[in-house]
Fold this sequence. Notes:
Elements: H1 7-30, H2 37-59, H3 66-74, H4 76-89, H5 97-120, H6 138-177, H7 184-199, H8 201-221, H9 223-240
Amino acid sequence: xxxxxxxxxxxxxxxxxxxxxxxxxxxxxxxxxxxxxxxxxxxxxxxxxxxxxxxxxxxxxxxxxxxxxxxxxxxxxxxxxxxxxxxxxxxxxxxxxxxxxxxxxxxxxxxxxxxxxxxxxxxxxxxxxxxxxxxxxxxxxxxxxxxxxxxxxxxxxxxxxxxxxxxxxxxxxxxxxxxxxxxxxxxxxxxxxxxxxxxxxxxxxxxxxxxxxxxxxxxxxxxxxxxxxxxxxxxxxxxxxxxxxxxxxxxxxxxxxxxxxxxxxxxxxxxxxxx
Length: 275
């Protein structure tokens, strides 16, 4: 199969479509021009394409058995593919595109460094004993800068995604209470964040930090406010604390949407996270 239609290339194109579409949607948001719905859905189409390729390569064809369903249930790429599909069919919410755009940015940069630049710059020869490696020049220097930037900013970006997903949950909850968005949205997203809480240390940190902040505010109010908040925490904790099937060793080490196995070399981020 030619490289033009290689699954890894298609995976990267999907992330590129999401990144370009998200940039346009966010620009229109900043300019208060509303949501360009066609571009918005085009972005999530690109995300779906990328995630479906990864899911197919990691889980294979869907199987009508409990074992396959359990594996799919705890697979973060399946979770994000389902979420992308939900945003694709739902009323547009511009903020929802931010987490996917963040993942796509890192995947596109890594694909550029590992798959595109090497086609134009041959790998440098290892220096002989006693010689220093020459300073990188041109595209090789660009590749090194991309590598360093991804490594230095990956964890921060994943924390940003975790807090953004909580902000989206708050947005759809307010929308449901004010009858401006679906009542299904906060339920669906709350369940998604429950799954991420069990799988991602970044989500756990964000939820715990937000809970601690609200604890302080509620404690200062005292009385009814503190009691109501305590009840909410007990209910949510009871619902969210269910035991999930653990991920297999090594699974979930990179950002969702990684092309693990899709065409060979996966676009892995340099800073790995434990999920």
